Amino acid sequence: MLIHYIWLFVLLSSILIPLRATGQEVSSDSLKSFFDQKFKSDSRLISGDFYQVPSVRSATEHPFLDNPDWKRGYVVIGESRFDNLLLRYDIYSNLLVLNASEHTSAFLQVALRMDRVRGFTMGGRIFRQYPDGRTGADTRFCEVLSAGPLELLVMKSKRLMLPVSGSTGYVYETSSKWSLLVNDSLIPYQGKRTLFRLHPELKGPLKEFLRSSRGSGKRESDSNRARLVTYCNSLLPKEPALANAPAGHPVAASVLPSFSYRHYADSLKNISGLLISIADDNRNKDVVSGALNEENPSRPHPRFGTNTYEKNVQKVVAGNKNAGQNNRQSYLTGRITNKANGEPVIGAALYVKESGQGVISDGNGSFALPAQAGTTFNLTVSCLGMKDQLFLVDMLSSGILNIEMDSRLIDVKEVVVRSDQYNNIRGMQMGFQSVGIQEIKTIPMVMGERDILKIATLMPGVQTIGEGSAGFNVRGSSSDQNLFLINDIPVLNTGHLFGFFSAFNPDIVSGFNLYKSNFPVEFGGRLASVFDINTRKGNKKTFGARGSISPITGSILVEAPVVKEKVSVMVSARSTYSDWILNRLEDARVYNRHGSFYDLMSGVHIIGKNNSSWQLFGYYSSDRFSLSTTNEYKYQNTGASAIFNKRLKEKWSLKAAAVFSRYSNYQANRVQASRAFEHPFTVQSQELKASVTGYPAARHRVGFGGSVILHSLDHGILNPLGVESLLLPTDFGQESGLESALFAFDEFSVTDRFTLYTGLRYSHFTYLSGPDTTNRSYSGPEYRVSLNFMATENLSVKMSYNKMRQYLFMLSNTASISPTDRWKLADPSILPPVSDQFSLGLYKNFPKSSLETSAEVYYKIGQNSIDYRDGADLTFNPDIPSLLCQGNQRSYGAEFLLKKNAGRLTGWISYTWSRSFITINGSLPADQINLGQPYPANYDKPHSLNLVGNFRISRRISLSSNLVYSSGRPATYPTGYFYVNRMAVVNYSLRNEYRIPDYFRIDMAINLEGNLLKKKIAHGTWSFSVYNLTGRNNAYSVYFVNGMDRIRGYKLSIYGVPVYSISYNFKLGNYATD
Fold it and tell me: What's 413's DSSP letter?
């Protein structure tokens, strides 16, 4: 029965005691007697409220400044000072709390009325009203860290953050607002840059002071900020004076040290009633100064006025008020970097609340935001995986704002404007997917690897023919129609071990962009998509390393600053050691198989002068695979790029690049000793390109540039292999071609809701090989047009049209990229493929639920599409044109995406319905396929459904899963056989008349994070994953064997059983520096 009364008491207490202290006057006899005795019946302290610590369910930490301990100090109310009080400051509720318990038998806490408090001290620290124009109960207080001509103020507040998985309850998050009070004007304080701007004549001494004080390693701490401002004050002219104390109070004089709050006392010499505690660096000496005057209230910054204060908003003054540019077009330019490692933040969204306009940071983290001079606006800077930054920008004239962003470690329920959401509604891109490092982390591993190409195949409109296939197919196109770039280096074979692993080490990847339509004009040379990969640029602040170990592969990445905050270097390596597994299998069919690969990547990133940067990057990958002793395959990718970025004045930026790439493969075939051969092949390209982008006016972006590529192909010599081979050497020849292009675009907002993008790329190709000197050039315009109509802030409709040309294509009689594939240039006999694509999309965001939705339809017409003649033999025939036919292709479909970006459960659902048909109807029967009738392309898969989910069980444990379903791809089956002169001849169906079985797979993984302490040196993560959880025998292909009485079909599966893997990922350095 007692426990029931206890529960009833708790319940009633929770109802009667409010979250914050409100409304109940302190008027008990015992408390009044205490105040009469201590404060001589001064009713101004008796008019406070009872205080109750905010009662938040399962809350951790506390709502107080620094810590909940009581500190001695005094309070000034009106013109009276009350000494020797026990105080603490609740910065969550904005209440100054008085402890009256030491003089009473009961524990009493009084929340003083903030509208009456003019100042107070706690533990020798000085607090004054924050001069932002707030009055009454909304008055907030800031700590004075340095006083003088430049008064350094810091105002701290706390807010409740929703509980995250694994935590014990709600947490309080502290935010700090730094300001300088200069001649009654409030200026946001951003460290040395603010002082350099205010007093350029002191730049030299201040820099010398900073150099001498770097040994502490805490340049951003409160004390060091105060030291810098105090030192600056000591250099400024001043007239020391001792303030007058009010009547009735004793005065104590003292000689003040240079690092003290002397100027704060001087600035208050006309204020009566307040005795302020002034201390030296050790804060151990009290000095009388002056008092407050109720008739001289603090004034707000004249430009900021009395706008409602918003937590975490940083106030910025951009430009020079003497520039005389009011109402003229100006630009806020700068660079966004990761605060932890100095790397540029790519794809960050800068959004202006008042105009609804914004820009995206480029590959160097740079941005140029147009704005009218003489205006003030709210700016939100956001990026996936980073904490949002909020600025109140006072735009005097064109100016520079460099932004450092912190990584976001926990998700909270809040309205977030992010870069991907910005592109989804306001951006011009259609068929566009951008994936960052945070989303890459949530995808289940396969054999201990997170494959970024597998992530792409989970997006709408992107499909693969099955396991063990390199590349993918986009909107009904072949795999060679995708342009893969890593730091501008084209990669022709994107898979290791026939596609089991991606050729891109996930440790070095910072994110990728996938374009399926409305291609930017700087991209060309492919018909279907552009897969643009960005890598890490190296840590410019501290040494860091990361890597992974699994039973199949191992990888390592090392990055470090060469010149701190200026030059960084990065090296990564990855390799497999799968032979030891293959050699231990008892199955004779795989006992003699060998497979291995490795890749190396390195980069140097240099921040130059005058807003410029250099990025040097090198890439090499190598594969070797053998099937018993009969077949051997080797292939390598090699590439290097040098990229230069520079901000030209305030409106324009330049990007220039020099690129080299090389792909080579080698095939040895010993299946038949009499026909054994070896055959090498090489593709090489050198490229120079440059582009300029600028903002001639607000909401108006233009750009232009050009590129030139020299292609060199060596088709190799097929040589006999072994003394028993009867083959003769066959030279497949060499060829080269020059591809060049000029491009320009214009993007502008016609109205606040309507934006138009027009672009033109004119490409030209010259075939430089062969005896024929006529008809060796191809050229033509490539149009890029898109429209965006914003019906509401979270709903838009987009349309686009683009035309593409492709001069380098792949020769393959398989549906995916393989080491035996050869590449070919357009020549006088083979026309370059051309495509026209029309797209229409509807995009809707639900910010409160962190949901994005999109629906797109497309229709694509292809000309000069290439396919093989029936019975073509690519291996031994060097006469390529005789093996090929060209015709038209028609592709169409619809794509749907539902994506959740925040919360414990994140992920997306995508569905694609698509069809792709080829028609090859030449004038001669030999130039026809399928009797000249349309037939499904090899990669035509009508239905595709993908579910991707990541559930964060706690801060350290997460569960991720994929569900993949797709229709089977087309296939040509034998339908019977007949006899000719007693010889059996197989009769085949029409081209791609049948389909292999549908594809279905479920993957699952659980990730265990190590200790998430921010300053921990090493962090580790275990990942346990299952690929193909149900063990379904998904058909990669179907092959047939001619039996005695009939033709029998067999299904070939790559993973016919669940594939279990475990991997350990480690990282040295700050956990948040991803």
Answer: S
Measured between alpha carbons, how far is 634 from 668 in angstroms, rounded to an integer?
9
DSSP annotation of 500: T
Q: In whole angstroms, how far apart are CA 805 and each of 740, 816, 830?
A: 12, 21, 13
460 residue type, one letter: P
Residues 6+ apart with CB under 8 A from 757: 428, 518, 745, 746, 747, 784, 785, 786, 787, 788
Cα 332 to Cα 392: distance, rounded to the nearest angstrom: 13
DSSP class of 196: H
pLDDT over 90 (residue 656):
yes
Q: Which amino acid is at 53?
A: V
What secondary structure, in 3-state letters, does 516-530 show?
A: CCCCCCCCCCCCCEE
CB contact at 8 A, 655 and 644:
yes
DSSP H or E stretch at residue 455: helix 452-456
Question: Rounded to an integer, what distance in angstroms lies between the CA atom of residue 521 and that of residue 746?
Answer: 10
d(CA 471, CA 487): 18
- CA separation for the pair 560, 566 (Å, rounded): 11
CATH 2.60.40.1120 range(s) for the chain read 313-417
- For residue 819, count CB atoms less than 10 angstroms from its CB and return exposed for 0-12, middle for 13-18, buried for 19 or more: buried
The rounded distance, in Å, linking the Cα atoms of 960 and 962 is: 7
Among 291, 252, 248, smallest CA distance to 268 is for 291
Burial (0-12, 13-18, 19+ Cβ within 10 Å), 101 = middle
Amino acid at site 783: Y
Q: What is the pLDDT of residues 377-420, one digit of tens each?
A: 889 888 766 788 888 888 888 888 888 888 764 433 333 334 44
> Which among 653, 152, 597, 630 is positioned nearest to 367, based on CA atoms?
653
d(CA 170, CA 345) in angstroms, rounded, equals: 30
DSSP state of 407: B
Which H or E element spans position 45? helix 43-46
- CA pair distance 1033, 1058, nearest whole angstrom: 10
User: Do 95 and 162 touch, CB atoms closer than 8 A?
Assistant: no
Say how far apart CA 636 and CA 619 lie, in whole Å: 10
Question: What is the distance between the alpha carbons of residues 945 and 964, in angstroms, rounded to a whole number?
Answer: 6
Strands 1018-1027 and 999-1009: antiparallel
Q: Model's pTM, two decimal places?
A: 0.65
Strands 71-77 and 349-352: what pairing?
Answer: unpaired
Instruction: Give the DSSP H or E segment for 588.
Output: helix 588-591
The string of pLDDT tens digits covering residues 816-858 is 445 667 899 999 889 999 999 999 999 999 887 888 999 999 9
Q: Considering the chain, tell me which residue range(s) the CATH 2.40.170.20 domain(s) occupy.
A: 432-1068
Q: What DSSP state is assigned to residue 881? A: G
CATH number, domain 313-417: 2.60.40.1120
> pLDDT tens for residues 317-345?
887 766 555 666 778 888 888 877 777 88
Fold of 432-1068: Maltoporin; Chain A (2.40.170)
SS3 1042: strand
Torsion of the alpha carbons at 1047, 1052, 1057 and 1062, rounded to the nearest 10: 170
Distances (CA, A) of 655 to 332, 567, 705, 828: 20, 19, 9, 35
User: Do residues 64 and 81 make contact, with C-beta atoms less than 8 angstroms apart?
Assistant: no
Please state the φ and ψ torsions of residue 331, each to the nearest 5 degrees: -140, 135
Any idea of the CA torsion for 502, 505, 511, 516, to the nearest 10 degrees? -20
CA count, 13 A, side-chain hemisphere, 1031: 3
- Closest to 987 in 3D by CA, of 1052, 1047, 1051, 947: 1047
Place of tokens 């945070």: 438
**Edge-to-edge, what's the strand order for the sheet holding 489-490?**
432-436, 509-515, 529-535, 482-486, 489-490
